[in-house]
Amino acid sequence: MRAFTYERATSAAGAAAAVAHHAGAKFLGGGTNLLDLMKLEIETPTHLVDIQDLKLDQIEATHDGGLRIGAFVSNTTLSANPRVRRDYAVLTRAIQAGASGQLRNKATTAGNLLQRTRCPYFYDTNQPCNKRTPGSGCAAIGGYSRQLAVIGTSDTCIATYPGDMAVALRALDATVETVDATGATRVIPIADFHRLPGATPEIDTVLNHGELITAVTLPKPVGGAHIYRKVRDRASYAFALVSVAAVVQPDGSGRVAFGGVAPKPWRSAAADAAIPHGAAAVVEQAFAGARPTHDNSFKLTLAKRTLAAAMAQVRTA
Amino acid sequence: MAITGASDARTVPPAPPVATMPVSLEINGRRHDLRLDPRTTLLDTLRDHLHLTGTKKGCDHGQCGACTVIVNGQRINSCLSLALQHDSDKVTTIEGLGQPDHLHPMQAAFVKHDGFQCGYCTPGQICSAVAVLAEIKAGIPSHVSPDLAALMHPTNAELRERMSGNICRCGAYSNIVEAIADVAGAVA
Ligand SMILES: Cc1cc2nc3c(=O)[nH]c(=O)nc-3n(C[C@H](O)[C@H](O)[C@H](O)COP(=O)(O)OP(=O)(O)OC[C@H]3O[C@@H](n4cnc5c(N)ncnc54)[C@H](O)[C@@H]3O)c2cc1C
Ligand code: SF4
Ligand code: FES
Ligand code: FES
To answer: Does CATH number 3.10.20.30 belong to domain B21-97?
Structure first.
């Protein structure tokens, strides 16, 4: 691991300023992704700004009936929150489907959103990877791409966004609140938060350097049956090949987001509209224009079957 | 890669000295005031600085659970945490749970049920298991909990899912779950 200096911020704007005014600085949440990548020298920050003392660890009701989740709330705390379990169960289910008990205790809401891809070539510093080293090429295109994305990719990168929590947040229309060094705040819809790679796969999200996530907000509950279904290579403690976050109403309408298939949680209005027509119709809409590789084209079939299983679960719920 | 120490010394300039930082940890009830390179993980602090070598390093990347310790009542992977993140925290390691002459009930159950073979994963398994029962008692749901509104129970499926962050290369899993279920029965 490269040497770095460390500080504990005492205010949100102060934390943002500390990172903004230091080119090599990064925020430190739980550290479960950043420290992993620092050990491999994939991330090489020169300064860490630990945000644990900012009191961003509260979950509170919003005036319009929603829920505001502090950026530092742990994955375990969020998933176990009584209101989340009752009104946003797809979020509890998605979080509990990810990582391990130890990791969820340490991982934070903001850090989880910002976890980096699990593309095997991104992790192997001997391989070309445009996301890790811009301009070096992409070893995954033409390489081992079974786990990688089938849609939203570009000629420079076919990696997925690997997380589970954000897939549920996408289905729930969450928003991400930030503050910058000047104290200015902004609210980013989760749909716009993660980027597609285009020509700049090294940039995962729309956040600016030094922009601190302070909270994630859920709109008022939408009701319905909440399902998160994740298919992976082992029964637990593995990333998704395909996952489905679905909220289905008694009248058959609903919303669905897919994980493990794209550089961001994948949802479309056309796919939502097709829910009453069944899983095949939804997947046809959601994956129109997909560009799977030889190794990962199975994900299209798997997405259909996973959604069909989720819809069957709704009917028996 | 055959890089000898000698050629290393010729080609690699010495790393600049790193400023250490103070940190105070309460480990197994005893306070330790240390000065550490900021890179030092909690795991390396325990093993290399405090010689508490019960906590093991398996993967050093959050993938195996051998380094599991309990911090402020919650289990975490000590390999993916900087010591500096834990200033003033209370850390319990396998040494603090119990000693050979006064075993923690979970340690005794692992012995009784043969919950290990080589023993390398065992300290992490035991710290994790103690925390798992506390998590079930606190009503924290898991991936396999059928009803999020109900109380949580230490069923076989729950124990297996909740222990999935602890890998056992020897495959002692079935006896590990039996040991935990034995303790769960006793505390239920
Ligand atoms: C073995 C293993 C298995 C895993 N399996 C899964 C899985 O199945 N599903 C899944 O979803 N995840 C999985 N994970 C990933 C895990 O969920 C993430 O590591 C975790 O959520 C990251 O949260 P953190 O708080 O530790 O982030 P950190 O590592 O602290 O930070 C991650 C990034 O976010 C930035 N950051 C942190 N907080 C803020 C903030 N407030 N504002 C702006 N930037 C910020 C940091 O600078 C860093 O770049 C796994 C991880 C491991 C190690
Ligand atoms: S798919 Fe993206 S992350 Fe993977 S090697 Fe190619 S550029 Fe890197
Ligand atoms: S050594 Fe920490 S999880 Fe493997
Ligand atoms: S007992 Fe050998 S790894 Fe578990």
So the answer is: yes
pTM: 0.96
| Intrachain domains B21-97 and B105-184 with the same fold | no
Q: Which CATH number fits domain B105-184: 3.90.1150.10, 3.40.1190.20, 1.10.150.120, 3.40.50.720?
A: 1.10.150.120
Residue B116 CB–ligand 4 contact under 6 Å? yes
Nearest CA to A196 among A265, A292, A296?
A: A265
Give pLDDT tens digits for B93-142. 999 999 999 999 999 999 999 999 999 999 999 999 999 999 999 999 99
Which residues fall within 8 angstroms of residue B3, CB to CB, at 6 or more apart? none
CB A283 within 8 A of CB A305: no
Are A6 and B61 an interchain contact pair (Cβ–Cβ within 8 Å)? no
Tokens of B125: 């398994």
Q: Which residues of A touch chain B, with CB atoms under 8 Å apart?
A: 1, 3-6, 28, 30-32, 35-36, 39, 48, 50, 52, 76, 79-80, 85-86, 89, 92-93, 96-97, 99-103, 105-106, 235-237
A293 Cα to the center of ligand 2, angstroms: 14
The ranges assigned to domains in chain B are 21-97, 105-184
